[in-house]
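Q: Structure for this?
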Amino acid sequence: MSALVAERPDVPAHLVRRWDLSKDPDAAICPYRAAAKLQAGPPIFFNPGEEDPRTKGLGGSWVVTRYELQREVLQNAQVFSSHLISGFSRLIGEEWPLVPLELDPPEHMTYRMLLNPLFAPAKINALEAGVRQSAIDLIEKVRADGGCEFMEAFGRPFPVGVFMRLMGLPLEEAPTFLEWEEGLLRGPTIEARASAARSIKEYLLELIAKRRANPVDDLASFVANSEIDGKPIPPIRALGICYLLFVGGLDTVAATLGFTFRELAQRPELQRQMRADADVIPDAVEEFIRAFGVVTSCRYLTRDFELAGVKMRKGDIVTIPFGVASRDETEYRDPHVVDFKRENTRNISFAAGPHRCIGSHLARREFKIALEEWMTRVPEFHIKPGTQPVVHSVGVWGVDDLRLAW
Amino acid sequence: MRVKVNTSMCSGHARCVAVAPHVFTLNDDGYNVTPESVVPAGYEQEARRGAMACPERAITIIEDEAGAERAPGGPLQAKE
């Protein structure tokens, strides 16, 4: 096929397939249906690509397309490591891990146990009032307008507001964080992304230093003053924690909200079900999370390993697009249909295994509150006539523009 | 009916308790710490649904005293 593959004679030709959603016109309409086309092919295939500084060898990665196999990869963190896999610190020529995501066992567990109590299901109740107020404030700004661009009005600012409250940051600074987030994840050039990455790092390091000197009752203070084995955690680990909360909790929630509200606008009967009976909303939340996995996780192999008959080599990268598992027809009946009564809603949209998204319970609560407040405060909405939602499937799959009218 | 949880596989999704609150118990961190136990009468279907909801397939249902085990997540997992 190409020189790249010719240099990997160990990869059987029938497992080589070029996959780039950004070049698939179907993905501009629905990344999920476009990506589901992969399921006609092998459960794991090799996607040749550019050389990657993370790999010792050649570019490209193994792409895992089935729920069950994705689960196996995610559960086996000894073989499939996430150490420094996201590359955010490498953007600025440094090497420090997002914490705990990019730590391997056993250090991973030490930090995970430090943070788990903060994000446990029972702890989320304490955040409920603030999250709800964030939702109400944003909705009330647009409810009299008869419509809005959803991502700008709600999808992006809502999770940022939750993050600011959680960290103990002034809400007035939310626009700066939104700008950094956009620059980091979708900056037009590497330089633009690196500049945003640097700004975030500097801000968070300063915040950690401030909270170490003068602790208050917020998450930043907790992180800054945490101890492990009786010693304060190093600032670089505190940075890794805060950075992960920033990159993990903002764009992902915004993206899932975007796809969810697009679906609701296109299928108003789903709105009617929730408006008629608010008790349906927790099931709706789980079904939307099931149907709209937005993250593509990566791992690299710490040793040669065979999975589902495919021989992978130490150093190889594995790509795990959760949005493909979302629509795995071997796992879900009619996977493309959003159905609040679906019996099998188990999903790996928050990953699986030791690195399961630590913010999953908070995210679910944000979702529940968003749906409750929208259904209570805004009448039935639809896509604004003459407009088309704009979506992307690079990085975290998401929605760029969603014009609603009511 | 009994339930058996592979607690080392539990990664704290807490879906079991969301679906089957009468059958499963979480610790303060949100991880399943249910000991192998008999399901309270009347909650068998809830237990099955709770086991099926586990994304990790960490929960096994033992249907009867003869010990016929239902593999974690199965067979309901195959296609709903």
